[in-house]
Amino acid sequence: MLDRLSSSQQDLESEELQEDTQASGCTRISECSDRQIVKVAGTLRTVTLRPRAGVPALEAELFDGTAPLDVVWLGRRSIVGIEPGRRLIASGRIAMSHGRRVLFNPKYELRPLGKE
Fold this sequence. Notes:
This protein has 116 residues and is α+β, with helices and mostly antiparallel strands. The chain has 2 helices and 6 strands. It is 17% helix and 41% strand. A 5-stranded mixed β-barrel has the order 1-2-3-5-4.
């Protein structure tokens, strides 16, 4: 109890995200390695439109409490429901780009908004 009182809000949110990842049977992002096929869960922290090689690309940062993961949908300018603060489960093959984990064109499942 004392630990929870002395923890920052960010630490508490990270702990909650890690518990959600474990409960949904997903792999922790920090445990994912290059070229591994994974299923991960987390919260979208940022969503931006950033062209790659002249092609539109919707990029989002997924965070599960352990590490960030860049999720990229090539050829998309927007996707309904993909917005900051939204929880989702994504699956696909991890790639490493500039020292960061990236998941290109993943299969995804949007999680319900609010408390479950």
